[in-house]
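Aggregate trends can hide what the representation actually does to any particular protein. For completeness, the protein is quoted in full, as a sequence line and a line of structure tokens.
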Amino acid sequence: MLYDLHCHSTCSDGSLEPEQLVQRATDAGVEMLAITDHDTTAAFGRLPPCTNSSIQVIPAIEFSTTWRKIGVHIVGLNIDPDSDAMRAGCHYQQQARKQRAEQIAEKLHHLGLPDTLEGAKAQAGSDIVGRPHFAQHLIEIGAVSNMRQAFKKYLGSGKPGDVKQLWATLPQIIQWIRDAGGTAVLAHPDKYNLTRTKLLALADDFMAVGGQGMEVVSGRQPPPLTRDLAKICEQKALLASCGSDFHQPGQPWAELGQFPGLPDICRPVWDHW
């Protein structure tokens, strides 16, 4: 089977509606798909009853937290989205996102960019406001020319509009996932710019509070990286996951289902279900 266990819809920062996302994954040959929107499971309430037997969609989520003051992401796979634990987790994180959006808008106002919260909300529609929505608004009003410039000038780490987030702790997030019947997976470990020594320390701390797996493949990546992450999983007895981290069409490095399979030494996360 072709598994893609990390992607995003319009319910967070993706560009496709949940039904469009499932159709695109089906067209790509994906047979099991996890929609992992940031801090919300709303996508699963928007999907019609499944009539397509060629793909299985499993409930999932991606939570943000910090480790040693470094932002990291934890994916919860095969969760019960209607569980008390998941409802509590989503509410907590969404309130944190709301407060962050208000603080970002205030900072941008002081930089001579008024009404950015309203603009970001218009970009987000009914979904949670995030930095990409602020970036889209800044593009629309001509403050920047593209998404990259928006983050480089205003919204990226250390920039004038940067607001640190008071996310739930790593142990709390893993507890929510496991109480919801899910599997806690460390997302895209190569994206945190950690030394290998620090990555191993992160893996140890993650496992110490109940973390169970790690993404060995996140979109198209260098084969040596895949082999090294697989080796870490083997050494730590972590389950291995894989996904595209798809957000929008036109990004071939993160296209649905278009990434190499897990190395043979890995124990796939789906063997745990």
The chain has nine helices and seven strands. The chain has one domain: 3-90+167-272. The chain has a mean pLDDT of 94.
